[in-house]
Amino acid sequence: MGSTDIMGPQWVYLSIINAVAIAVIATNKVLAQSVRNVFKANLTWVYIALFLVAGLSITGAVNKTESFVTYARFASAITAFYVLVFY
Predict the structure, then answer these.
(1) For the chain, first and last CA: distance in Å?
(2) How far apart are CA 69 and CA 64, in angstroms?
(3) Which residues contact 87 (CB under 8 A, 6 or more apart)?
(4) Nearest to residue 43, comparing CAs of 31, 33, 51?
């Protein structure tokens, strides 16, 4: 794809798969109960807190562009984890 970062396209593909999976989860009423159960777990709130702290740390980063890219990858990884948990 002409990317200089050979790892870059895999994160784009993961984001696309996440978007499709979230759309399926959002339209499936049976999965709604599993979504509620996941958000009752303490580990979910730990991940959310970690995600927020990582986002705040971008403000103090020396290389803000790389920090934002890494944060986006972290968001994709967390989203993929929860998509798997919901199923």
Answers:
(1) 31
(2) 9
(3) 31, 34
(4) 51
Q: Which of 14, 32, 29, 30 is nearest to 78 (CA)?
A: 14
CA distance 12 to 8: 7
49 and 78 in contact (C-beta within 8 Å)?
no
The first and second tokens of residue 54, run together, are 């990582």
Q: What is the share, in percent, of the chain residues with pLDDT greater than 70?
A: 90
Cα separation of 17 and 5, whole Å? Answer: 20
pTM summary value: 0.73
